Amino acid sequence: MYANNENNTDETLQFFLAHAQTIKQLFTEDVDVTITSKEKVLEQLLSNEIPVQSSKGRTLQQDEPMMQVIRSNKIQSMYIPAELYGVPFTATMVPIRNAQGTVVGGIGISRSTSKQTILKEVSQQFATSSEEISASTEELATSASSFNDYMHNLSNSQNEMSLQVEETTKILDMINSVAKNTRVLGFNAGIEAARAGEYGRGFGVVAKEITRLADQSADSVNEIRQLLQELNSKVANVVTIVNDAIDISENQSAVIHEIAQSIQTLTDGAEQIEKLAQKM
Predict the structure, then answer these.
(1) 197: left (phi > 0), else alpha (psi -120 to 50), else beta?
(2) pTM for the complete prediction?
């Protein structure tokens, strides 16, 4: 219920009026404090953060929120968007009751939410940027992983090449050994042809040709061996470079993973800030 003939001389209202400044100081933020009787605004301590004019002395309209609070004897909270007064703020209105429980007026506390709105927008932008960076980091990590696999495959291929060079060297050793034996065989055949005299002349020509081919084979084997040694040396250098690249790639993958985890932590923090801003 609420009184029909109360005015601003009511003791309870006088108490609130006398302590209006103290009530304002109870808040860490610069709030607007408005105290009304059932008919008009008795006091309004303005906030520097809410650009409204003082309504002290103004008669309350029957359809305005404070009158609804007085008539219903219930607390009411509302959000006022920035489109109305330039800044967003919240207003909480509470009915004032005297010692008998009769509603004699109301008190309203208005608080700017500009900082919370800015904080929310910044946290949203930060979260969006973090998600974009996180996505780019994941793509980079995938590329680094693919590159790492490629380098491992290349390293395996080079190892196989080294083995093939070693096998080829063994074959050349065998060919060189055959060439030496062929040379000895040709030399011995030449001796036998000389002993045979006129009858061994044709055989001597064949023996010389065998010796010549053996010498050519030996020379070719030496040339091929030299080329293989050079190739093996270059392969070894490439293997070293590839292994260094693999180490760098693996280190990069580890660093990218750490960066991704840090970004995720920042994203989670931004989401928490946004939730806190919504509750403020």
Answers:
(1) left
(2) 0.50
Q: How far is CA 59 from the centre of its chain?
A: 57
Place of tokens 């309350």: 60
User: H-helix or E-strand containing 95?
Assistant: strand 89-97
Q: What is the pLDDT of residues 219-276, one digit of tens each?
A: 887 888 788 778 778 777 777 887 777 777 677 777 777 777 777 777 777 677 666 6
d(CA 270, CA 68) in angstroms, rounded, equals: 39
The pLDDT assigned to 117 comes to 74
Q: How far apart are CA 208 and CA 206, in angstroms?
A: 5
Q: Nearest Cα to 162, choosing from 245, 235, 226?
A: 235
C-alpha angle 25-70-54 in degrees, rounded to nearest 5: 50
How far is it, in rounded angstroms, from Cα 273 to Cα 121?
10
45 φ, ψ to 5°? -100, 110
Q: Which domains does the chain have, with CATH numbers?
A: 11-112 (3.30.450.20), 118-279 (1.10.287.950)
